[in-house]
Amino acid sequence: MNAEVAEVQAFLDGGVGRLVLNRPRALNSLTHGMVTALRATLDDWAADDRIRAVVLTGAGERGLCAGGDIRAMHDDAKAGGAGTRAFFRDEYRLNALIARYPKPYVAVMDGITMGGGVGVSAHGAVRIVTERSTVAMPETRIGIAPDVGGSRLLAHSPGELGTHLGLSAASMGPGDALLCGFADHFVPSRRIPDLLEALGRSTATAPGTTTAVASAVAAVVAAYAEPAPPAALAAQRPWIDACYAADTVEEIVDRLLNSGVPEAKEAAEAVLANSPTAVKTTLAALRRARTLPSLEAVLDQEYRISCAALEGHDMVEGVRAQVIDKDRNPRWKPGTLAEVTEADVARFLAPREGDELGLA
Question: Are 5 and 11 contacting, i.e. CB atoms less than 8 angstroms apart?
Fold first, then answer.
């Protein structure tokens, strides 16, 4: 078994096909090889009668997946970005497959689940969080826009919660992930091993129809699920909905700063610290994602945006500041919201020859 395949462990457990992301020292961040292995395994398992359902987990106790391997993306982008374009293409196609998978797909979003980790989990049929879950689409912090279908999830979160999360790069605890539509069930982490064992047993003995297996999965999850911790964002809906409903990022920031709410001021500071280009592109992308008809259409839009970002300055600089040098002092270009024009944003959203997924 080569190193790439070893980074994804795949095995049969009762009636369940178990997928384990296996880079715990890197918070199970996704390499291109892992994406390829996941896709190949899921394609094989779709036609394998032994596999009644699929369960995705992450190795170690720190998280399911912290996202894509952004160190590799940083280095590749400096060399032209061809490898990262191919990674995005395969990753987004994997996200679409997961959303349409013909067998129940259960994702255990225990611990850190961010960016690409959301893409391989939050489009599944059954999405489980624990008290250790931290879920986020933090892309604007590193100079790009939410992707892996995350902009669709954010766009369809209640009110303007998704706009707040996308622009500020804020994280969600388990209660917030449930509120915002990123998860379905809360199961305490201590109960996960027993849950996985029960899923293997119940799917192995369930009648052969997809509906019967889905019912068996639902019954097991319901038996282990518990009430989730409160959603912190629920009480903040009034100022979030009022401020983020504005038409421009500048007006959103102005409303946040003048709301008189301390949390709103902190959100404004977070938005202003992120890439001005990425923040403005994200707002436009989220507003458009609300009207797009499908996940596939949103992934097509995200692919255009991500490919355009590879040609700019901010992604390389954002990863340098947050991950490579860790000085937390990115030098964005342009450096202010006022300097980012409507034409700049339009360039990210415009169709680009050769940069289409063709999913929609």
Answer: no
